[in-house]
Amino acid sequence: MKQLKKVNLNQIKVKDSFWSPVQELVIDEMIPYQEKVFKDEIPDVEKSHVLANLRIAAGMEQGEFYGMVFQDSDLAKWLEGVAYSLVIRPDKDLEQRADAVIDIIEKAQQPDGYLNTYFTIKEPEHRWQNLLECHELYCAGHMMEAAAAYYEATGKDKFLRAMERMADHIGGRFGTDKERGIPGHQEIELGLMRLYYATGKEKYLKLAKYFIDERGQNPDYFKEERQKRDWVHFNMDPENTFYNQSFAPVRLQETAEGHSVRAVYMYTAMADIAGQTDDRELYDACVHLWDNITGKRMYLTGGIGSTVDGEAFTKDYDLPNDMAYAETCASIGLIFFAKKMLDIEPSGKYADVLEQALYNGVLSGMQMDGKKFFYVNPLEVNPGISGELFGYKHVLPKRQGWYTCACCPPNLARLLTSLGQYAWSEGEDAVYSHLFLGGEFDLDKAFIRVESSYPWKGQAVYHVEGKQKSAFKIAIRIPAWAQNLNVLLNGEKIDTDSCRKDGYCYLERVWGKSDTLEISFDMRIRRIYANTEVREDAGCAAFMRGPFVYCFEGVDNGQLHSLRISTDRKAEESACGEGLFKGMTLLKVPGMRMEGSRQLYSETAPFAKPVTLTAIPYFAWGNRGVNQMKVWMLEK
Amino acid sequence: MKQLKKVNLNQIKVKDSFWSPVQELVIDEMIPYQEKVFKDEIPDVEKSHVLANLRIAAGMEQGEFYGMVFQDSDLAKWLEGVAYSLVIRPDKDLEQRADAVIDIIEKAQQPDGYLNTYFTIKEPEHRWQNLLECHELYCAGHMMEAAAAYYEATGKDKFLRAMERMADHIGGRFGTDKERGIPGHQEIELGLMRLYYATGKEKYLKLAKYFIDERGQNPDYFKEERQKRDWVHFNMDPENTFYNQSFAPVRLQETAEGHSVRAVYMYTAMADIAGQTDDRELYDACVHLWDNITGKRMYLTGGIGSTVDGEAFTKDYDLPNDMAYAETCASIGLIFFAKKMLDIEPSGKYADVLEQALYNGVLSGMQMDGKKFFYVNPLEVNPGISGELFGYKHVLPKRQGWYTCACCPPNLARLLTSLGQYAWSEGEDAVYSHLFLGGEFDLDKAFIRVESSYPWKGQAVYHVEGKQKSAFKIAIRIPAWAQNLNVLLNGEKIDTDSCRKDGYCYLERVWGKSDTLEISFDMRIRRIYANTEVREDAGCAAFMRGPFVYCFEGVDNGQLHSLRISTDRKAEESACGEGLFKGMTLLKVPGMRMEGSRQLYSETAPFAKPVTLTAIPYFAWGNRGVNQMKVWMLEK
C-alpha cells in the first residue's frame, strides 16, 4: 500500500472554461466579501467579529469576545483560501493584509503556544477542560492547515512556526503517556498532517495518529470529562457518542454515524494516516465507511447528513429530499475523504463521487455572485413550508449573506481555490488525472497541458511533454457513465477496452516531448433511479448530464408536485445562450402536468396534460428568487 | 335558521353488528381499564394519579399533586363515558363507584364553587391568574359535560348542582362587565352549553356566548395577562395567538389555525351557539372554517393537524403522511363540530365527514383490545424512522397503554358510548338519520327500528312506527359515494332522484304503525385521488370502501415503498373469515413490486414484478406488531 503523492499548487495553473471563472469569482468577490464580513463591514448580515476577537486577544484593543466558540476557524479557513488564491493570482496588497492578520494571530498566541481567542478573552481558566464542546483542537487544526498553506504559497514561515508552537503545546499535553484526550470535533488530525507535510516532522504525524487511535478507546471519555468540570458550554449530551464518532475505536466503525462533518473530517485523516503509515487495517475501516456512505447514505448531489438533528447521518437509505441537511461543509469533507482514498487506490469509485459532490452539493453552496451561501443543500424546496414549518425550518429557500455558525462560506473559499490539487496525483510509475481540469500541470514526470471542454462536453486534449527517459503511465479517469470512449494518441486510435481498469484509462510508454492524448466520450443525458429501498425517491427519476445533477425550478415550470416526467420520451439538451445561465446546457424534459378535481379527495383520477419541463444544473438553483425546486420527479 | 333537536341517549338502543361490539369493548374493557389507570393499578404505563389528586384536594388523604395541570379532565371525560355506558347497560356496581368519585369531587370543590385539584393542592394563590396555560376553564368544561351526562343518565343531580356552583363561580368572575377573560384551551363553552341544556338556565348559554364573543376582541389579551403575573406554568408564548385562536374575533376567522383540538372544540361551541341563538353571522364563520378544514386541511382519514409543532394546522394542502399529527381528540372534535353543523343544516357534506372521521381517524385511536391508544394517527409509518428520528418522533408505531398527556383515551370512551347521539336528529317536520346505525330509536315522531348491514354492506331496513297523525319526513343520509341507490317503501320502489337533496333522501308521508323503508346501494371499492396541490399524495391513490379508508401493512405486503398499485386492474374484495379481522372486508389490490439495481443510484429503471397486495381497514392497523403502514400508494 503506497500513497500517491499530491501535486502541489505551485505545480498547477488552472485554465479551465468552467473552473477558472469560478476561481476568479472566489478571488474577486468571495474572498474580499468574506474579509469585509470578518471586519464587520457588511450591513444586514450575521455579525462575525472574528478579527476584533483576535485583536482583543492580542491586547491591541479593548472589547468582548463575540461569536461561536469556534469563531477563529472561520478566519483560518479564509486565510487558507487566501494562500491558495495567491498562488493562482499573486496580489501584493492581499498578501500584506494577510501578513497583518498573521501578525495579530501571533500576538494573540500565548507564551506557551496556546491560541484560541474565546478562551484567551473569556475563560482563560477553562482551557482544555471541555474538549467535548469547546473546539480548541478544531480551531487549532484549521489554523495549522492555514499556516501550512500560507507557507507553501508564500514561503513565509511565521504563521507555520507559530502553529508549530501550538502543535507542540498540544503534543506536550495530550498523548498515550500524558493526558488522554480526543477532540469533540475532529480537525486537529488534518491540521497536524498538514504540519507534518509542511515541516517533515514526524512528531506531528504521530500526534495525529494518536488522536485517531485514541478515539473510542474509552467511549465514556466525554462523560468522564464532563464529570470533572462544573461548567458546560453548549450543554451537549456527553453520552451521545455517535454524534462525535467516539462510540468505538475508529477501526471498528463500519457505518457512517453522527455529525456528518465530524465524520468525514475524521475519515479523511484516517485515510491519510493509513496511506502514510501503510496501515491496512485503518484503510480497510475507511473502505467500509466509504462504501456505507456512498452506497446507502448519500444524496445524488453528493450531499450527506439526512437530518438537522445533530446535522447527522441517520439510517441506511433514509434520504428525505425536503428535510435534507446535506451541509456544504459535509460535501467538502467528502471530497477530502475521496481524494485521500484515491491516493491510496486510484479508482473511479472515489473519483466519480468526488466529482459528483464537487459539481453539485458543494457548488450549490454558493450563489452565482459569490456572496451568498447555503449551509443546507436540500433536494426539494417548497416556499411557505421550507424554512418555516417544523421539520423544515433548517431548509432555507434562499442563500444567506452570512451565518451565526459560518463554517461553510470560508470552506468553499479554500476548496475552490485549491481545486487543482484534486485534479492530479503522482505515483511511482504513473500520473493520475482525476478530473478533466484544463490547465498546465508541471508534474515530476511530465509537463502536461490540458485543454478541456468538460464539464459540458466529453472532450479533453492532454499535451504531454515527458521529463524522463523511462516509460511511465498516464492514467486518466473516465467517469463510469461515459459511453463511446475514444482515445487518440498522437491521432491514432487506442484500444480502450484493454487499457481501462477501475475507472481509469492507463497509457504506458516513454512519453516524448510533444505527445498528444485526445479523449472524447458521449455526454448523454442520464435518467437516474434510486435504489428501491429509498422511500423518498420511490417512483421518481432524476437527470444527470456529465457530472451535473439537474433540478426543476418553479420559475421555469410552475407548481412542481403536479408535474410528471414522461417515461417513454427522452429529455433533450437545450443550450442556453444568454443571461445567468450562459454557456450552460439546460434540459428540456417531456412531461405532463396532472390536473384533477378541485375537491380535496375525489374518485376522479387526475388527467395528464403534456408539457415540456426545463431542468437546470442543481448548483445553479435559487439564483432567480425564492421558488420551488425539486431534483427527483415522479415518472409517468 | 332553526337548530334540530338532538336525540337523547335514553331514546336510543344501539343494536348494531359493527358498533355494538365496539361499545361492549368500551364498557367491558376500556372503561374498567381506564378506571384502573386512574387508580394507578396498571403497571408499566404512565402514571395517572388523577383519583389520588382528587382525594388529596378533598382532604381525604395526604400527598402531592401529580400530573398535568389538566389532569382532572381525564377523569371527567371518563365519568362522562361511564354515564353513557350506564344508559347502554345499567351497572349498579359501576354506578356506585361513579357516585363515590362524584362524592370526592364534591368534597374537593371549594366553598366558593371552585374546582381544580392542581390549584387547590399546589398553588391556591394562583387561581385564575393564568388562563393561557393553566386549563382551569378547560377542566371545568369537562366536569360540566360529565355532570350533565351523569344527570341525564341517572337522574342524580349532585354532580350537576356542584358544577352549577362552579359555573356560577366562573360567571361571577368573568364577563363583559367583570373581569375579561378567555380560556387558553377552549372547552368551557361546550361545558356551559351542556349545563344549559341540562338545566334550561339561560345564564349558562349567555356565559358560553360571552367566552366565544370575547375571544380575539383583544389579541393582546394573553400578553397582558402574562405581564400581570410573575410566574409561568409551561412558558408558552403569549403572543402566539394562532395557537389558541385568539388572533381575531371568531366571526372573522376564515381559516383553521393553530392547535387543532382547541380549534374544533371552539368551532363546535360556535355552531351550537349559532344554532341556539339564530346567529347567522356566527354560523357563516363556522361554514367558512368547515370548508377550509375539509376542503384543504384534512387527511383522508378525517385526521386534522398536520404538524406536531403546536399540534396544529399548518397551511392549505400541507398534509404530510409520515409526519402527520392527526390527534385522536382532534378527529373526535371534528365529529362534534360536524354534528352541530348538521343540526343547523342537514347536509351530506357534514355527515359524510363525520362518518369519515368516526370510522377511520377516531377508531384507529384504539387497539382492538380496547386497552391501548394512539394519540397521533399517521397515514404512513416506517419502523426505525417513525417514533425515532427527528421530525418523526411523535409518530409512534404502536399504541401505548397510557400517556403523560392522556386526553385521547377517555375522549374515545365518551365518544363511543354516546355514538347513538350522532345517528339521529329531530326537526319540526322531519327526523334525520345520519348514520345507518342499527338499533331502536324512540323518537318524538316515531319509533324506528333499524336493521343495518352497514358498514360492510350498503343495506339497512328502517321499521317505522309513526306516533303522530300528521305527515312528516324521514330523511336518510345517503353517502355521496353511494351508487345505485334503491329505496323500497313497504316493498315498493321509490323514485330516489326526486327525493334526494343535499345528501339526504327525504320521504314524506303520514307514517303508519308498521311502515318499512328498505335502503340499499352499491358498496364498491373506491380509488381515491388527492387534489394535485397535495404534495405528499402526488402520484398516489388510496382505497375506500363504504366509510372505511384502507391501508397497507408490511406484515401482509413486505416492504411498502417499492410497491405500486396497478392503474389498469381493479381491486377486489376479500372477505376475511377468521382471526383478528373476522367479519371485515379486506381488499386484494393488483400491483407490482419494483425491483432494481442494488446500487444506490443507477441508470437501471426498476422493473415491475406483479404482486397482489392486501389492504386492511385503516382503523385496524398496528394490531399485529410493529410494522410498516401506508394509506397512499404510488400508482403505476
From TrEMBL, chains A, B:
Single GO molecular function: hydrolase activity
Organism for this UniProt entry: Parablautia intestinalis
Domain of life: Bacteria
Keywords: Hydrolase
Gene3D superfamilies for the chain: 1.50.10.20
Alphabetized Pfam families for the sequence: Beta-AFase-like_GH127_cat (PF07944), Glyco_hydro127C (PF20737), Glyco_hydro127M (PF20736)
Domain called Non-reducing end beta-L-arabinofuranosidase-like GH127 middle: residue spans: 431-523
SUPFAM superfamilies: Six-hairpin glycosidases
The protein, known as: Glycoside hydrolase family 127 protein
Domain Non-reducing end beta-L-arabinofuranosidase-like GH127 catalytic span(s) in chain numbering: 12-420
Keyword Hydrolase in annotation: yes
Domain Non-reducing end beta-L-arabinofuranosidase-like GH127 C-terminal: 525-633
GO BP terms in the entry: carbohydrate metabolic process
